[in-house]
What does this fold into?
Amino acid sequence: MGVSRRDFLKLSGGTVLVASLGVNLDPAKAYAKDLRIKNAKQTTTICPYCSVGCGIVVYVENGKVINTEGDPDHPISEGTLCAKGSSVSQLVNNDTRVKKPMYREPGGAAWKEVEWDWALDRIARLVKDARDKSFKTVSKAKVKEKQADGTMLDVEKEFVVNRTDAIAHIGSAALDNEECYILQKMIRSWGLVHIEHQARI
Ligand code: SF4
It folds into this structure.
């Protein structure tokens, strides 16, 4: 339902009037909210947006998220959320949400929906090809080396590196401890050295 400018002014004027008469609306607001979430199942989660990791209470009814709010029992955020965390229910309740992988061909202008299996196979193929093409077993670098007469000289030496510089990996604040552990094992086994985290960008 749309609210005209006139309706808005009437409404906000009324609210100011009630407040100015000394009527505390907080209990009524809390009651209205309690009614809305009365039959909802309550679970907790962590905000996925940044590494602060604020706690969120999620209310679900009939398989649908009907409310999210700051978790007062969370030791980090103690019930507070920033604007992004406060709107987190929009991640699921949003008609424009992208629910399938999207693919745009090299040089193409249009995005098209693809299946997860196809997308994962394609990513795996490209990662493997990029790694194989760029993998280095040794690399040369200059190091200071002490000479017989005691002077230091820059000397080029070869080191075993077993790495690729062609692929970078970026982590997410939405990953938990175990996911990070497995990811690190996997990407380091491929020889990646450019490993970063979204929170540092
Ligand atoms: S985006 Fe906001 S609510 Fe979410 S974890 Fe970061 S500070 Fe907390």
